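Q: what does this look like with magnesium ion bound?
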Amino acid sequence: MDKVQIKDKSFRKHIFCDAIHEKVLKVADRINEDYKKKNPVFVVVLNGAFMFASDLLKKVNVACEIAFVKVASYEGTKSTGSVKSLIGLNHNINNREVVIIEDIVDTGETIVALLDQLSRQSPSQIKIATLLFKPKAYTKDAPIDYVAMEVGNEFLVGYGLDYDGFGRNLEDIYIVD
Ligand code: 5GP
Ligand code: MG
């Protein structure tokens, strides 16, 4: 399937699943090294990060806990600039080492809002792991600690990322045609 049609838009295959898995494995290796003998809490950002988190965490071999939050900032293919918290964190992260797991960091609005929200619970550290990073769109200063792949500013779907709710199940990543 080299092309997919989702609603009004046509997408072509851009990053193949084998390449994705290779990059995800590299992030897992780094996390395993950095969190050796530590007990991090991974905070997965729903919905988009579910597939990345699932593949990544299967390869993480340190004793860890996994929690979820749900936020929304995108409508269609554009960031709205305001970040809505749809499901809050139901996990004590006080004094814990936290790793946020995101699907994609674009302008950085979402990640900075999340950092703000989570730091209020006084974790000892917060790091960020993202499948995709759009460096040219990023407007914030917060360091993105683990990036599986850097991409351009084009809109992507697949491997957890949606267009208007569809396309999350695709095992490869597609770019708008
Ligand atoms: P930011 O707040 O950094 O601008 O955007 C982050 C969120 O916007 C991501 O978590 C993701 O949900 C959504 N997003 C950003 N870029 C894309 C993209 O290319 N495709 C899709 N499907 N979602 C994106
Ligand atoms: Mg996201």
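Residues 3-176 form a domain with the Rossmann fold fold (CATH 3.40.50.2020). Helices lie at 17-34, 50-58, 109-119.
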